[in-house]
Design goal:
- There is one protein chain.
- The protein is mainly alpha-helical and about 130 residues long.
- The chain is built from 4 helices and no strands.
- It has helices at about 10-15, 30-35, 65-85, 90-120.
- The longest helix is centred in the C-terminal third of the chain and has 31 residues, at about 90-120.
- It starts with 8 loop residues before the first helix and ends in a 9-residue tail after the last helix.
- Bound molecules: zinc ion (ZN).
- Zinc ion (ZN) binds near residues 20, 49 and 52.
- Zinc ion binds near residues 20 and 24.
Length: about 130
Amino acid sequence: MRSLRKGSKLYSILFNKCPKCHIGRFWSTNNPFRNMFFSPKNSCKKCENCSLAYELETGFWYGCMYVSYAISVAVMLLCWILTNFFYPLMNIFNEILIIVIAILLVSPLNYHLSRLIWINFFIKYIPNDTN
Ligand SMILES: [Zn+2]
């Protein structure tokens, strides 16, 4: 697939790569659960390859809340559609419980992806840049 090749934004987002060089890692590990709970201080500071400082300005990461919100709404809608499709007579409180549990389970992945998506809005891919 062309959109998954190095140089595309989707490549950087899905394979945890620096948005500028697509070589260095964005998060220190590829595991979203580890990034969220065990290494928040070491994660996403600076690219080990091109030295891009990921926090472009103070408070830059506040913006990824918009992305995170969109992902959460998508997960909630998906849960709502699936529960209504498979169990049309389900109690509304059980439905809400399922949606809340789904949001909690997806939250590390949401955190992981929302920062990657947010920084990819602002940084362009520059091949072979090593300074
Ligand atoms: Zn880089």
